[in-house]
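pasting input
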Amino acid sequence: MQSVAHEFKAHARRALQDTTLQHALARAKGGFIDQRRTAIEALPEFDELRACAKQIKNHTLAHLDYYLERYEAQVKADGGQVHWARGPEEARRIVIDICRAAGARRITKGKSMVGEEIAINPALEAAGFEAIETDLGEYIIQLAKEPPSHIIAPAVHKTRGEITELFYAHHRSHGINERVSDVASIVNEARSVLREAFVTADVGITGANFLVAQTGSSILVTNEGNGDLTCSLPRVHIVTASIEKVVPTLEDLAVFLRLLGRSATGQEMSSYTSIFTGPKRNADLDGPAEYHVVLLDHGRSAMLGNEFREMLRCIRCGACLNHCPVYGSIGGHSYGWVYSGPMGAVLTPLMVGLREAADLPNACTLNGRCQEVCPMGIPLPTMLRRLRMREFEQNLTGARSRWLLSIWAFLAKRPRLYQTLLRPFVRLLAIGSRGTRRSLPLARGWTQSRDFPTPQGRTFQSLYRARQRKQ
Amino acid sequence: MSDSARNAVLDSVRKALGRDCELDASIETALDGRLNDSGPHVLPVFDEPPLERFVDKLETVHATTVRVAGVADIAAAIDSYIGAHRLPTNIVVARSALLDNIDWPAAFHVEHRGATVDDVVSVTEALAGIAETGTLVCGSSESHPTSLNFLPENHVVVISESRLYKHMEEVWQELRRLPGGLPRAVNLITGPSKTADVEQTIQYGAHGPRRLHVIIIEQH
Ligand code: SF4
């Protein structure tokens, strides 16, 4: 999709006032957090697995060219084809060419964040194909013509009522004329509508959670089984994946599988973890005759060579989103592109440009929860700070912030002056308050959705001085 | 395919890694060695006997299980499952040495083929089971089309206790030993199809089977 990350502030403001969205976010959050905690507490080896996974990814990234070439050779040996794409444009062209060559009309899709990244659906439609998302969440947002708001729960922002109306409006062409509003009926209706798509599609496009170099396999983790129907029934299977998805062996894969489900939804294993290797074998009764993999770079090789390499360890589990207070308040759409939350605030500026997404690295309280829960130990707050530094270096920080920062820097270097100036404000703040203030003059924007803690007792500096004196 | 894109991406990766050439031969040998190494990393420890754990985990993820004494009891187990859920007796069945030996009741209409949207019950045999997570491992082949695992609303899987392994790493060894290597699709199945995409409420039977029923042939 086209990025609208530059409108972050306006979107965030609107999201905070959107009561439907606030309900949806509140409901989702607790569930994800509790389920993850329970699953991790039940596995004493979790930390050991995490350290191991981090080491495997670091090793793989340090030899990425080797593993990509081995992966490619193995896919070819099994009868599949590998295509390389520097950016979204090239990736779209490759996919469209494959679909054209296959004489395709209808295309089913499994959920793929790389697919979102290269905006494949609008491109397929513009090229005259019918592209149908089959993951229920993706299907819902496709009907609503919206981007995903969460990397693993794309329709988490939608309420049941909204889905009822969407289905009512779109399913009439399938002969369904009644509104369904309970969860079971909604799921059943989608099931029956999408069944026809599965069996009539010419091409199936899925993402991959991992690629295994040793066997040339792509791995797909789902709960619905839509991904498996998408790539087993049509004549052609296209996998869209990015270059950092490769891991060396099936034994390495096992480590990641034990972390992914638990971190994402608190599941030990998702319902379906599928390992796809090449097209159908000669005597097979089903499976695609053609198996293609499109390998996308899109800024990743650049990240490999700079201070953002660690971000390439990300396995897209969504834990950092679920634990982020900013994401929890404004939802995924505010971030303005396909990735959201802490990982999105790092990736979006690196992929669509720092100028376009300048607000994202600042939408962070540096509370550090994302890094604590990240199964890959990615130092997300550090990365966000580095992006802020880049913004400052590239003069993307606003004039007022720069000006205020330089005043602050001037004062911070002169402690006595700093205190003399600050003391009256501190006293003023403390007057008549009981720990927090609901509103502050000149800072309404800030206090509208938070309370300001007021100074309690003496300042740190005076306490410190008193202590030094005592010793 | 455009070789220029391939070379550009690989060059850019090499440049990022601070190398402008292919790998050193000695490093390459070490990496080849790592690729052929099938030693496991971290294996979660558990004390329960594998069969107990397997059944326990499967039931936690909403599958149903039944243990039988031998091949002769499979037909009866399927008959009672079909009776209990009032399902049709037209079923699609995969082929295997074990499944081919089932003596089906006269009322059953058994077909061996891929599944269609009209099939309600499929019966397959798993290549293996993983006790750690209660996972069934199914591989695609001419006798076991993948559609049997996903299209019908009821998936009945038969597995002998002797095919149970503690961890997935042992299953990888078995898979690599299969004649012809890895099948096109290896499906690790842990419970029926489900979704939580509508208000985080779990609903079974999203696109795949609503029910997963596992028949385990015990070893004596
Ligand atoms: S950054 Fe870490 S927590 Fe966030 S999605 Fe990636 S792996 Fe998961």
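fyi DSSP finds 22 helices and twelve strands in chain A.
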